Amino acid sequence: MGIGAFSLSLTVKDIHASKAFYEKLGFSTFGGDIDQNWLIMKNEDCIIGLFQGMFEKNMLTFNPGWNSDAAEVNPFKDVRQLQEELRAKGIAFVSEADPETEGPGSFIILDPDGNPILVDQHR
Question: What region holds the VOC domain (predicted)?
């Protein structure tokens, strides 16, 4: 089951301090808007998102339809199809994509240890 490009979404207290820290580790800004308190940073194939005031916990993130360079991948499995396949396997959802929509959508599930997993389709 291909669920898209992987990144780690980090809840940060001070996005400017976090940006400076990860730049020292070799990450550079890849996307986002620091004025809106979110950045996507990349170091080779490693991608992290920094989010101030948006999420309660760090979470694993997957983006269907994208590769690690945020370039479109075709074909890809729509987030609503992934959601139904996981539901059929007994996975419970914290939030769900509206099955009556098309295009962007997302859902959140929890792993057995309570770690949130966001599947976030942007197109």
Answer: 2-122
Compute the mean pLDDT over every residue in the chain, rounded to the nearest whole number.
96
d(CA 55, CA 9): 9
For 56-111, the DSSP string reads SS-EEEEETTB-TTS-B-SS---HHHHHHHHHHTT--EEE---TT--SSEEEEEE-
Overall average pLDDT of the 68-85 stretch: 94
Domain count, the chain: 1
Q: For the full predicted model, state whether its pTM sits above 0.70.
A: yes
CATH code, domain carrying 101:
3.10.180.10
